[in-house]
# Entry
Amino acid sequence: MYNLVLDSFVGMNHHGQSTILGCALMENEDIQSFKWLFECWLRCMGGKALKGILTDQCASIQRAIELCMPTTIHCWCIWYIMKKIPSKLNGYKGHNEIKQEMSHVVWNSYTKEAFDRNWIDFLRKYGHGGNKWLSEMYEDQHIMIPVYLDHHFWAGMRSTQRRESMHFFFNKFITRNSFLRQFVK
# Structure
C-alpha cells in the first residue's frame, strides 16, 4: 500500500534465539536509503558501529556499510548465494550436480590455499573457467567463503535466514493493506 521496504537488524541472544535489534521502513533500496538507515543506527547506538553484518548480495548495502561503518566486517550470506545457482547456471547441463560440488568446495575448504585449489579444480571439472558469475564469486571470496571469515565471531550465524524468519513473523500480522499505525502496534 505504501510501497515501503522493511529492513531489520536481527541478532541472537545468549540462548541462541533470534532477537530483533531494530527495523526500519525505507522508501527504496538505494545507497542513500541504506546510508540513512546506518546513520540512524549509529545515532541510536551512541556512534558505535556493528562489529559484523551479514547481508544478501546487495551492492547498495555494501557501499553504505563502507561509507558509514568502515570498520564493520561485512559478510555475504552464502545460503543466499547457493540458492542462486539454479538461475545463474540453469543453462548448464547438470546444474544440480554443479551446485553440490560448489557447496562442497565452499564448506569443506579449511584453508585459503585449499579453497583456491578446490575452486580451480571445480571450474576445470565443469568447464566454467569463463563464467562471469563464478568469476565474480571468486573475486568476492573474502566476504562470503567461511574459511575467510572464521576468525571473526558470528554467534553461529551463517545466513540471513534469521532475518527472513523475522520477516515471515511480520507477514503473519501485516499485509499490503495494513496502515502504518498497525505496523507500529
Notes: The beta strands are 5-12, 18-26, 52-55, 73-76. The chain has nine helices and four strands. The chain has two domains: 5-77+159-184, 79-141. Residues 79-141 form one domain.
